[in-house]
Amino acid sequence: MTLLENRDQGYDSALKVIYPRTGGAHLVGVTGPPGTGKSTLISSLVTKYLDDGCAIGIVVVDPTSPVTGGSLLGDRIRMKRLFEERSVFIRSMASRGHPGGIARATRDVVRGMEAVGMEKIFIETVGAGQADTAIADVAQTNVLVTMPESGDTVQLMKAGILEIAHIFVLNKGDLDGADRMEILLKSLVDSGESTEGWTIPVVRTVATKDEGVDVLASSIDAHYEFLRDSGFLETVKRRRIEQEISESLIASLHEYAKEKMDHPAMSATIDRIVARREDPVSAAKRILRELGLQS
Asked: Buried-most residue among 17, 55, 106, 238 (CB within 10 A)?
């Protein structure tokens, strides 16, 4: 896991070994604003799936401090009741400044869990709010967790994260304002379009009391069955692979460009741009043509 996360020496070889053993797990993204109880909800869900004899992986992404570069990784504390379960593996990882609520290496850590036989893998995002949409490029089922009074109507409707959710969860459903929030969520579902034929369910839970968790688990399983039965699961997998290849190409080109920045020819290019004899876009396209990457 550490080798995959840090992309240390041997990373490429390790990925080649484990990759044929991946692709069989149900990947469930759990996202939403801070304080909605995502970790507690996952803990309750995992306990339910353990009763069904399921092997579970949990990836928790925590924010990285911009000052120290470290991360609290506090979600492990909230999931402590799962530590002694032999069929559960929890991996906390820092976002390391990666945008979108997950870490750059999240995919690879998930693959490590798939390779050792985890059947369901829960991925909890940073929880920064509206921008946590990168989980859509990793998970197959995305669960958006909200709570009563978690934001005004306008902000909620503007949140881009609503567009990638397959299940809405109203957690802490025993608090004041829960009825009003549930009505709002259901109205958003009614006013929106179904995703590839899937109608978003609104599930009300109280994770600290394990209330509504069975209904949520059933909704998660139902979405996965819908993906398989409709044939859309393969479409999702192809989209994910296409996205990852694109990201890998961009990252490789970026590293290549950084290596070439100290080359005399690059220095001369920068001199021309500084002197306004060439613009940056034209220079980049010229370099790509010289490398044979653009006609």
From this structure: 106
